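Predict both folds.
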Amino acid sequence: MERNEATFKSGFASLIGRPNVGKSTLMNQIIGQKIAITSDKPQTTRNRIQTIYTCEKGQIVFLDTPGIHKAKNKLGTYMVNVAERTLNEVDVVLWLVEPTTYIGAGEQHIAEELKKVKTPVILIINKIDTVKKEEILLFIDTYRKLMDFAEIIPISALKGDNTEVVISCIFKYLPYGSLLYDEDTITDQPMRQIAAELIREKTLWLLEDEIPHGIAVSIEKMKERKKGDIMDIEATIICEKDSHKGIVIGKQGAMLKKIGTQARRELEKMLEMKVNLQLWVKVKKEWRDSDFLLKNFGYDKKDL
């Protein structure tokens, strides 16, 4: 890639917002590859995922944080801490919201947090594909009164509308500088973690509402065969209750088989090779309130 060092920019952009506003969908849209898992359930993203976008203009390192919400347990507190700490560490904050003229308590809470930081904030009103065009100005006007935003951009992350505007706006606020990562790097997530998250995504999509929050996935083995044509993956789905274990396995193992089939397809697409996936289900009661187990499932102790 030809680069003019004098005009090349690089820096960090944090993506924040209440659970389920489309942060991961936007991330995947910009990068053009699946990094962050998506589902219609809140609290899908548990770790701060670093995703890297590189073009001739520069390099943006995105921190896709867990949603900011009122914490109910140690896992919840961990997620909120990670999200709020990021605000002061980056060059620009992207706050994703839904198109509405009613600003709820959750949004008010985020606005109060954002007023405390010096970082410029770009407000992104997502899901504009779900509303009438003429209403968009009303939504902009509603949010504009909340605080002083650097920019306000209406987008549809799902359809990819206006995402290029988001990228050019981010570059306005980044410092001049050289590459932070090799230009072909798209994430700092270890492959095992992405594999675990992909399997967890399938459980989020396929299972009943109350179960997924209590689910973690632990990769026990991830090994390429000598010929390099097949990846053997062994993973354990951890749930909090015996009754949940039964639901995850399903009648005669049908649900577990379904999760495995869908996860294997995604993993093969991502790894570009055949995958032999074996899944187990274990019960670890109240793992979301155990420091040891949280750490064991890939959450960083310093963020607890």
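Second protein follows, with its predicted structure tokens after the sequence.
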Amino acid sequence: MEIDFSILPVNPLKMYGGANGSKIGILYKGETYMLKFPPKPVLNPSMSYANSCICEYVACNIFKTLGINTQDTLLGRYGEKITVACKDFETDGFVLKDFVQLKNTIIDSTQNGYGTDLSDILRTIQQQQIVSPVELEKFFWEMFIGDVLLGNFDRHNGNWGFLVNANTGEVKIAPVFDCGSCLYPQIDEKGMGYALSNEKEIEDRVFVFPTSALQQEGKKINYFQFLMTTENQECLEALKIIGSRIDLSEICSVIDNTPFVSDTHRCFFKRMLKERKTKIIDKAYQLHF
């Protein structure tokens, strides 16, 4: 059944940050969701307004198939617009604190909280004391491998983090959230059709772009090159764990059951995920193991 978000009650006390579009709090079946309205594309006005909403919904549900704790999402309409609702996990006294804020507490960090140098991020993970460093690094690398599969170009320090309860002192790692930069949200229907009929376009989207938001030596990390050359044992362990959980048939089922998606878009999703699994994840797995 198609959800009409416009008829749901609004929670005016829920106000959300972030730079990508307007957001309001709505109540659905007694629970609060953040309804996201991404801005209309400026550089490519012909691109569907709904792309990032659909990509966020699909990516979050694929993350779940990998056994990674991920934010619940819903797709529906608000008037004529297709929008995504993301379940609010700030409940029972827990408040979201992003990795930026944690990184700012590490006084000998070489960068500020927004700095995305990989070595500095890993140093912060090891030096912080609010959660187990071992548990946090495991989560970080498993999320990274999920982002490799999904082609996330914007996993920065502001869109992953922790849930903190100041009253009880309890801290837990937040579910994966903000996945609207996965699965090539900036490509339009015409571009999808062209890519599906052009092997070089597919190859470029596997081996050249998107890159990670993380950096090494001042350059954004190329996912393929990184996984083929890394000696980081925690990363390789995550590759082994998440790589073994990738089930293309389950992923295709997620895509097939996603509303508002054209046949071309479904084909594009399936083709790119198969290519990224085979040519990045599987190849790196075979090389290292």
